[in-house]
Structure formats: C-alpha cells, structure tokens
Amino acid sequence: MTDAPVHPPIIVGAGPAGVRAAETLVAAGLRPLVIDEAARWGGQIYRQPPEGFQRPKRALYGFEAGKADALHRAMADILPAVDYRPRSLVWNVENSALDVARDGRSETVPFSHLILAPGATDRVLPFPGWTTPGVFTLGGSQVALKFQGCAVGSRVLFLGTGPLLYLVAYQYAKAGATVAGVLDTSGFADQARAVPGMLRDPATFAKGVYYVGWLRAHGVPVHSGVRPVRIEGADRVEALVWRRNGREQRTACDAVAFGLGLRPETQLADLAGCRFRFDAMDRAWVPERSAAGRTSVAGVYVAGDSAGIAGADAAEMAGERAALALLEDLGRPVDSTRAALLEQNLAASARFRRALTDAFPFPTDWAAAVPDDTPVCRCEEVSAGTLRKAARDGEAAEINRLKALTRVGMGRCQGRMCGAAAAEILSQALGTGPDAVGRLRGQPPVKPLPFSAGILDKEAAP
Amino acid sequence: MTERLETDVAIVGGGIVGGSAALFLTRMGFKVALLERDWCGAKASGVNYGGVRRQGRPPEQLPLSQRSHAIWGRLPELVGIDGEYVRSGHLKLARSEADLASLVAYNKKVEPFGLGLEIIAGEAFRARYPALGDRAVGGSLCPEDGHANPRLVSPAFARAAAKAGAVVREQTPVDHVERTGTGFLLRSGDSLEIRARILLNCSGAWSGRLAESFGEPVPLSSAHPCMAVTEPLPRFLDVNIGVEGGGVYGRQVERGNVVVGGGRGFALDADRARPARNAVLTLMGEAVDLFPQLRHAHVIRTWTGVEGYTPDRNPIIGASATTPGLFHAFGFSGAGFQIGPAVGEALAELVRDGHSSAPLDAFSITRFAKADPALSVAAPAGH
Amino acid sequence: MPLLQRVAETSRRAVPFVLDGRPCEALEGDTILTALLTNGEQLRRSEFSGQPRAGFCLMGACQDCWVRLEDGRRLRACSNFIEPGMHVVTGAQPGAQP
C-alpha cells in the first residue's frame, strides 16, 4: 500500500524530535501537520528568540550553535511542504482525533498516525520558600536569557543537579550576569564514579568539565552534596540557606535557578490510551515504546524527551526513527540500514544517559526532609504535611486517591510541578517506592482551555 | 492464603450508599463487612457534581430525601468532616414563562413535603440575583439545599464505618457470590472468603450483574455525566444553580472554582469514562451563556463518572423478590449523592426491622418485571 | 528593583503599556512576563495564601504566571507578548475583579 493516508500524519511538538520527524516524512513525500505551542520552532533547547532579536546563534546556544542552526534550517527548508500550526495547544486526544486550541478557538483534527514529541520540563521538588518571586526553574532561567535577553536576577544562585545546572550558570556568567554560586545536590563521589560511563560520549563529557572549570576559574563558588534549607525573603528572594555535610551556610542572592533534571510531558500519550511503565532511571512513568518509537496504540508513536529523558541529540534520532516507523506502518519503502543505525545510536545514547544519571542522581532523601508546612502543589497550595497526614491515616495509598482527597495535582498545572514530589512524599510516608503509588491520570484539557473555545464552537455550528 | 470472615452483613460497594449503610448498621451493633473493588467513594459517589439537592426530585423520593437532609445537617458528627457542605440554596431557573409555570406546578405538587420552596420572578428575581441578569424570567429557590465536595464526603462514610468497627476492604473485587443455607458466601479471588447472613447490593452501575445472578435482571444502563471546573475566580455565585428542563448546572465553591455540568461522556471500558469533546465544548458554551462571568475564564479540568440509570430514573431500593436476605440499593440515575445517606439508613432499618420507616414501595425491583414480562425470567440454577 | 535584569537585546523599540495604572515601558518582543518583571517584582498573588508569585517555569508548564488585563482577559504571561497600550493588573485577589 503506497496510497497517501486519508489524514496527514500529525506531529505534536516542533523541537529536535518533531522537526526531524517532519523532515523524514516530507522526504518520503508526505505533508505532515506539525502542531507546536511555541510561536517559532526549535523546542525548548533550541528555542528561537522572537523576530527582530539580534544576537548570533553562537551567543544563544554556545557549543550547540551548529546543531541549533541545522535544526532551525531543516524546518525552514521543509516549511512549504508542512502544514505548520504554531501557537497551538493540543488539549485533548479522543477517538483518533486531536483537539487543538489556537487564539481561543478549538478545532478537532482527526489522525490515523500521530507522533508525540512534546518534550520535557524541569523536574522540581519543593523546599521552604520555593514559591517566592525570584525562584525560577533552571530551564526557565535559560529561557529568560536565550529568548528574552534577561537574567532572572542580578545575583543568581544555581541549585540542583544535571548537566543543565553548569551549562546555564556558565551561560549566565558569559552574558554578564553575576553568578552567586553553583550548588549541586549530587556528590563529588557520584560524579567521579560516573566518569567511565560518561567517557562514552567524550565531547559531551569534555563540555561538562569545561563549564565547571570555567566557573571555578572565574571565581564562582561551586559546591556538591548540597541540600537547600530555605529561601530567605518574604516578597522576593534575599538569600538561600543551604546545608552541606551537616553545616548550614547562607548565600545572598536575588534569584535562584533550580532544577533536578527533567521530567517527560506524557499527558497526551496518556489520553491517547498508551500503556505506561515506570522508568527507574527517570523515576517517572513513561509510555511504553519499542526501539523504533511505537507505543502500545497502533499508529501512535513517541519520540524525544517526552518518551523518557535522553537529551536533544537522541531526540533528533528518535524523531527520525519514529517517522521511519510510521512510514513502515504505511507500507512505504524505508532505508532499513538507516533505521538500524538510528536504533544502534539511540541505544548508545541510552548508555551514556545511564552514566549521567549516576553522575547527577535524583536526591532520594529530599522528600522526607520537606517540612510539613511547605507547599508541594503550587497551584492549590497543598502542603507536605497534608499529604503525609493522608498517607499516615491510611486514607491514600495511591496518587490519584491522594489527589482526590487533598487536591494535590488538581490545579492549573495538572501535577506537572508537584506530581513527582507528591509521589516521592507519598511513597516515602508509606515506606514504598515511587513506582508503587501509581501515576496521575491525565484529564483533558491538558492545559487551561478558555471558555471562548466553547462559544465559538457553538457559533460555528449550523 | 485465604482469609475467612464471618459477619452479619456483607455490603458490596463502598460508595455513599454502601458506606452509610455500613456506618448505620455498625452503629446499630451489627457486624459488617464492606467490600469495594476500587477505593471507597471513588466512583460515581465521589466524582459527581456535588449537588445536595431535594428540589426537582419526584414526590416519591422526597420522604427519603427529607430524612437525608437531616442527616446532612449532622455530617461532621457522623463522618468527622464538614465535606465542604454548604446550605447555599438551590435555585432552579426558568428561562421561559412556560418553564416558570412548570416550576410553580412542581411547587404545588411537593408542598406537603415542606421543602420551603420559594418562587421568585420578574423584578424581584433580578434584584435578588443581579449576577444572573436577565437570562431567566425567574426561578424556584430551595433555601436549605446546597452543595458539598463529593471527593471528600463519600469516602468519609466508609471511613467512619471503619472507625466504628466495620471491616472495610478496598481494592477487593467480589467475583463470586452464592446463597448458602444460612446466608451468603462471597469470595474475592483466593484472598478473601466472607460468610454473611445478609447481603446488600450497593455497587452502583455494576449492581445489575449481582441482581441478575439472583434472577432479578434490571434494565440498568450506564451513563457518564460530564463536568468541568474553572480556575479559582472572584466570587459571583453563592447559590447552586440548575435550569428547569435540564441543560447546564453550576456552583461556585468556597475557593472560587466554578463547577459546571451538563452533557455526557463516553465509556473507555466497563470501569472508566471520559468527557466527550463535543459535550465539553457545548457545556462550556452553555455555561458562559448562563454565567457571562466565565467569558474570560478557563476550564482547568473535566471529568465524568460511571453512573447507573433506570428507565424511570428512580432508584431500586429494598428487598430482593427472589432471595431472602438480599437487599438492593442502586440505579440512582445521577441523583444519588444527596439521598445516599438516608438510603443507607433505610437499608440498616430493613436489615434490623424488616421494614423501613420511609416509604420504599416506589423503588421496588419488581416494577420492571411488571413493565416488561421478558425480564421476569426464572432464577438461574447456579445460585 | 525589578526582578528580571536585561543583559542583552536592549536596542529594540519601546512598547508603552500600563501596569496597575502606572505607565511603563517594555521592549518589542518582550513577553508579558518580561515586561512586568523588568518593571516590578511580581505578576499576581496566590488566590489562596495571597502570597506574591512571579512565574516559575517560563515555558507554559507550571501555569503560575496567569495575569489579568483590565478588560478582564486572562493571559499566561510567559507565552504571550506585550502589546502597545495593554493594561495589566497584578495583585488581583478573589473579589477584586468586577
């Protein structure tokens, strides 16, 4: 069968995975629909500043400027052959169709083949004062710089773990912002132990070493094995009090950039009916997928960080591979050598990712240390103590039950910011692992939907 | 290893009906085991709109509904939480003179039950409900009706029963029930075996199977009322709103979120359902039409549940016609939340006294067999 | 002192807007979040605790940066651009809205 499918294939997300998937489908003569929430393509990592901004890509993306440029050009080249829908939110998946909101209107778009590549956001855990103005996610701090030419403060302290921690601190310092310090929650021993594995990707490893070296050489205090104690300041950040080896220290700053690695965006795969599994490395539930990116639902594919955190290079490969799988499933001829090579490279990148996890482990002791009065859910302001009480009283042994009883994860963000923390706190209170408490069910709309969507729908009806 | 329990009463289904039956029976001194396949109060009892409303019910439900009203009044004493229950009033809007006339007719019909209904129309209506503007010609207010948070209230009944001494088992599907010489034998896989003198069938949309296995098929269908909630908004609505003739309904909770309902969802499988896109969009359109205050607001979540409906929209409450010791209470057709606690109390009376002080004749399971002789099949021999 | 500090891209055209009744200036291509936080310290107050909030993820995930315009519209500040003449209201509390 080589006829064109009844509906164009749909790609959700125009980051590294989505763009490479689109490129692959266009090369095979298809005209995919690419739906993206951002105004311009590139995803978060290669996010493009608004039209009219001047800085060269070298300044925006550093060592990755070449890759960013290649990805931007790839999409620009195929634009005439793509139905591109920027600033569009996919808010629902139902019965082989997507609901897409754009400018306050909603449109139902049927599909036969769907590649989900909505990416990831920072994984965060609560600590006292983390809702104070001036505390931003690490990724958000990078967006401020790259997308708006702004630093999130005049004296910025970087807190958390993962390769992004040192990269963003370096980018801030290079842009002329004052970096008050880099506080790594992982230990020096973790990183030393992970060196052999990290050497699987010497270039990436070298960049990491370079950033740390550069920061130290420029007098930026860098500490490992850190845990935050509290933010000082009522209406904005004045300092972070932190602990290392049992000793409390205080660093004055007016902003904290904070992140503990990334968490995949999985709501759409959930609504599409994909089967999920708990991934121990991501410490999160992710859609089951084959090496090619096929999910448990025929015609639905996942690629990039939304299918499990693997980084931008892997996302480009996974996007291409998923598109090849889609073509195979349409009965189109596919370069099987290329497909095999991509799978081989993806496997290698997964091994490197394992080493990164060793180097920047998730702080499993954090949840237990969150004081009872600290809000876990930023939207509904549900405190850690409320969650612990529900667990202790035997009222909730499962995360959706905890949500029903306490409102955690019930607010505007649908658990994106508190889901990981709630699972950690619940499982810690129950004495189990985070895999044992289940996963938050997705509910449409996956992000807030304006009532105008309903009004216009009605007016459009005969 | 199979755990074996002997009890007076086994209750299948831990929703608001099963949970309150467990609570009242335990308080009467019975040994009770409450078995819930999911979590108690997690199905229709816990995910309904949250209206605590007598107004609009058919007269035959009002004696029970009035008793429930009294029970709701002592909710904290019974279940230990307030469940965000407020007697905000329930205002049923008339959007035409004909609808107003039908509200007036209802008012007359239910007058003997003492709901305290008040018809408000014209200038008086606009003066009293400026937020509703001119989108209704009037309405009928039941001042002591209100709303509550079903996610909190429904599980609380089962929890209170457990605290009072009932055995409450969640994540415990009952996959085998049989009548024995002295009562009933229930099994949940290989893990639990219960012998009970009395069996209460309170498993909502899933009750039909159990009834049928005792030779009492019921024309029960599942439906999925669709609901949506906004982000917290400035307060503009202090009364629970319904519309005569159906359509959208809405309430605003203390925290500011507006909950609206209307339309139907669809089944994902036998256990789960999801709001249908067209229902959500239509609901949003109708809600903003009724409440212009929502025009700049957002829906942050939609949901539905699996609810059992009967053809006449009245529940089935009372003794089995085929099997001594078996009692049913299900098929509340989307209106079980308010009445649920009184139904639990009535079941407890049936168990203790053989009759309830509230009239239940209208809810007999035999009424369907009379209407459709095809349903009046002989009891299968298996049980 | 404003929360966000401009470190680059400062030669864009100015965009006048109004923040809580006060005339302010942003730059063309600023998100509403950037426009507000280069002119102030917060975007809104929590509906429940009344504590100030200033956004968090800046990529449309956390939903912490919803602001209200004087005409009643509600916008996610990190993913909508400032427009000339916009009237933005922060410090909105339940009950404060008409």
TrEMBL record, chain A:
Keyword match Metal-binding: no
Protein name: NADPH-dependent 2,4-dienoyl-CoA reductase/sulfur reductase-like enzyme
Location of the FAD/NAD(P)-binding domain: 10-319
InterPro entries: BFD-like_2Fe2S-bd_dom, BFD-like_2Fe2S-bd_dom_sf, FAD/NAD-bd_sf, FAD/NAD-binding_dom, Metab_Enz_Cyan_OpOx_G3PDH, Opine_Oxase_asu/HCN_bsu
Keywords noted in UniProt: Oxidoreductase
Alphabetized SUPFAM superfamilies for the sequence: FAD/NAD(P)-binding domain
Domain BFD-like [2Fe-2S]-binding residues, every copy: 376-427
UniProtKB/TrEMBL annotation, chain B:
Molecular function terms from GO: sarcosine oxidase activity
InterPro entries listed in its UniProt record: FAD-dep_OxRdtase, FAD/NAD-bd_sf
Enzyme Commission number(s) of this protein: 1.5.3.1
FAD dependent oxidoreductase domain span: 8-350
Keyword Endoplasmic reticulum: no
Oxidoreductase in keyword set: yes
Top-level class of the enzyme under EC nomenclature: oxidoreductase
Sorted UniProt keywords: Oxidoreductase
PANTHER family in the record: FAD-DEPENDENT OXIDOREDUCTASE DOMAIN-CONTAINING PROTEIN 1, SARCOSINE DEHYDROGENASE-RELATED
UniProt name for this protein: Sarcosine oxidase subunit beta
Phylogenetic classification of the source organism: Bacteria, Pseudomonadati, Pseudomonadota, Alphaproteobacteria, Rhodospirillales
Automatic annotation (TrEMBL), chain C:
Keywords: Oxidoreductase
Keyword Oxidoreductase included in the entry's annotation: yes
Pfam families: Fer2_4 (PF13510)
UniProt xrefs under InterPro entries: 2Fe-2S-bd_N (IPR042204), 2Fe-2S_ferredoxin-like_sf (IPR036010)
SUPFAM superfamilies cross-referenced by the UniProt entry: 2Fe-2S ferredoxin-like
Protein name: Molibdopterin-dependent oxidoreductase YjgC
Organism lineage: Bacteria, Pseudomonadati, Pseudomonadota, Alphaproteobacteria, Rhodospirillales
